[in-house]
Structure formats: C-alpha cells, structure tokens
Amino acid sequence: MRVKSNKRKMRMDRKTVILLLMLQIIGAIHSGAADFGAGPTFRQPWSPKQPTEDFIRTDTILPPMSISDRPSHAETGSIFMARVAALPLAEREGEIYKALAAGNMPDFLRRSVHLTAEFADSTGAVHSLEYEVLPDYLAIGSDADYCRIPMNPHTAQRLATLFGASLITAKLSDHIYSSAEIRLEPFFYKPVGNANETVEKFVLHNAQIEQQKTETGGMNGQLIAGIKKDVILSERIAQRPDRVVIYGWHKPDGQPIQPVYSGHIDWYVDYSHGIRLMNEQVLLDGKQISVSGILTDPILYKVLSNEDRPMSITSYSR
Q1: Which of 144, 138, 115, 130 is nearest to 67 (CA)?
Q2: Which of 115, 220, 261, 269 has the smallest number of Cβ neighbours within 10 A?
C-alpha cells in the first residue's frame, strides 16, 4: 500500500511541475518577455474602415456594477490556479467565488465598455439600446498575472447578482463579437478523457489566448471576442434547470462554432467556457430598465433575445 501511495504522489508532483511551467509561460506573456516565434496569422483587432467610436462609448450614465477593489494581499492568477488545481470540483467553485467576490480580478476588467444598438421588439418596432459589458471574460489575478476562469453557471450567477450584473444572451453574444476591437481565431483542443475539464487545460488555453492577443497588438481593456463560448441566459433554463446553456465562440466570418446548447449537466465546466457579464441595468430608448425586465416582457424580449418567447426565468438557481 505504501508503494501505491508513493506512486500517486509522484504522479501529482509531475502534474504540479507541468502546471507551474505553464504558469511561467503566462507570466512571460503578460510581461512581454515571451518570444514564440512566427505563429499563425490572426485577424487584426480592428480596421480603420470600422471606427469603434461609432458604437463604443466609454462614458456612462448607468449605475456602475458593484465590484470590490482588488485587495493588496490578493493572490496572483498563477498562485491561485496552482492552489486550486487539485481541488475537488465543488471546492474549486467555492474558491473561485470567494476570490472574485472579494475583488481579486484584473483592474482592466472593471472598466466596462458601453455599446449601442438598434433592435426590434416582437411587434417589429425598433428601439435604441445602450448597455455596458465587461471587456473580457471573468479572470482571477492582477493586470500583470491573471487567468480567465471557467466556472459553472451557479457560481457565475451568484457573482452576477453580487455585482449588479447579468449574464448575456446569444443575441448579445453576436452583437459583442461584431463590436469587438479584438477578434481572435478560436483555438480548441481535441477531447482526451476529461483533460479539457482540468485546471491545467484552463491555464494552457489562457496562455494561447494571450499569445494570439499579443500577436495582433491587442491590449488589456479592449473589447475582445472569439476566445470562449458564452454561458448564456435562455428560456431553456426554465425547461431544463439542471443544465448549463452555452453559445458562441465565433469564427472570423462571424458564425459561432457553438449553437445554443443545453446538453451539459449544470456542474460541467471545460476550458472553452467563459463568463461575460453585463450591467443588469440598460438604457432602452433613453430610459433605464433591467435586463430581466426586458427578457420577461412579451413585447420587449426580442430586443435582447433571438428566442421565440419571453423568458420565464432570467437566472440560474438551485
């Protein structure tokens, strides 16, 4: 029995070494010290023919989301990811919530992007919409050392509620992609056992995104898309409350790799999932209204949703 225990310990040590090496790569990318040589060509963040100021505003008249300042003693992304790598799934989710609820996220994530659009309601009447969205997916750590962190929809919902935020819809996922200043080619891994569900793969994928972003000249705080599937709000939550609904991961042609899908059990998480939050309050025709108020309205729901009925539930709950 002692020999078997030692073997287990050796396997864990190897995993830890691999994880730490990947974390060092992330640190090098964030500091600008990494040199990966010539890689694939990725779409540039934006074209002069598509000026972002036409539809992205940095001023705001909405009440801001309530996200705590990052504590001075907070863990870096590298340290956090190494610490939770071997935790059971439920414990890992708890640590993710505690870290983000306490404000352990990069400062650039707190600076939301203000988007505008015109969308029709279920009668065909067109409305002016203004909304605020985080520039990137939720991540843990500092501006210099962070990792985007996949999580289950219940953890994401608790954070959204705490922040005065909302998860987005498939329709808004499309609009965010079309509005993004940085649009990257999706990068995916073939499924091998449960490898895509591990923290090691979360870290590896984050490093890949950072490499692509660096190669396009992208910077923290710019609206970025094409890098994750969105965990979204959908009427399917009411139909299948024990499932997570995902959508997106847009290709350069604007088409999503992942159609709206609710096949995964709600505790399932893999490297491709991301949490993009928006302010729960929006401006509709210049008047403040909540996301949930729009999505449950029999006329207005179409402004934020591509589905064929208003939502009866606008949050994940157990």
Answers
A1: 138
A2: 261
